[in-house]
Amino acid sequence: MTLKIFNQVSIKRKLFLILSLSFGFLLAALILLVGEQAEDVANSEINLALTQTEAVLEESWLNRFERISNIAKTIAEDQRVTPLVIEQDKDSLLDLSNELKESSELDILLFVNADGYVLSRTDKKSLIGSRIKGSHHLIDTALTGKEARGFMVSRGKIFQIVSLPVYDLDVNAGDIIRGA
């Protein structure tokens, strides 16, 4: 029945129908192709932007780590710090910590004795006297006499941390008084 109706339609209409369908399929194929290409270009641009952002952030983090490390080394070598850490004079060390924190524009300044007990902490004074050895690799690394850098999350904030031992400059360079 359908074939009979098709045979009754004029050749012009048949050609128009075939051309219309062909053009429609071609248009649909072009739209799909353009859509895929647009998506590929967009993804490529997004990846490029993310790569550039990552490079900028990484450089910023590295620069900040270097700045914090230099400040921490200056504090660790401060001749006022070593005796207070050795004597475990918590009150004087806390006063000095607050002074050093303000002058160096650090967010947190923390001193730990060789056994991993907090001697001074400028952000959470209630933790003074508590043992934090084993709580984080950054603390444990400083207790072994080495510098460590990394990130820590505290109260919903991400902190860049540099931990290192306190040095006694009157002793041989290899002798380290442990602390962070």
Question: How would you characterize this protein structure?
Answer:
With 180 residues, the chain is α+β, with helices and mostly antiparallel strands. 57% of the residues lie in helices and 14% in strands. It has a two-stranded antiparallel sheet. The protein has a two-stranded antiparallel ribbon with strand order 3-4. The N and C termini lie far apart (92 Å).
User: Proportion of β residues?
Assistant: 5-15%
- What's the main sheet like? 2 strands, antiparallel
Q: Could you spell the SSE succession in H and E letters?
A: HHHHEEHEEEE
The radius of gyration is: 34 Å
Estimate the helix proportion, in percent: 55-70%
Mean pLDDT: 81
Please outline what is shown here.
With 180 residues, the chain is of the alpha+beta class. The protein is 57% helix and 14% strand. The strands form three sheets. It has a two-stranded antiparallel ribbon with strand order 1-2. A two-stranded antiparallel sheet has the order 3-4. A two-stranded antiparallel sheet has the order 5-6.
Secondary structure blueprint with pairings:
Blueprint: H1 2-8, H2 11-76, H3 81-87, H4 90-104, E1 110-112, E2 118-121, H5 137-143, E3 148-154, E4 157-163, E5 166-167, E6 176-177
Antiparallel strand pairs: 1-2, 3-4, 5-6
Summary tags:
180 residues; alpha+beta; rod-shaped
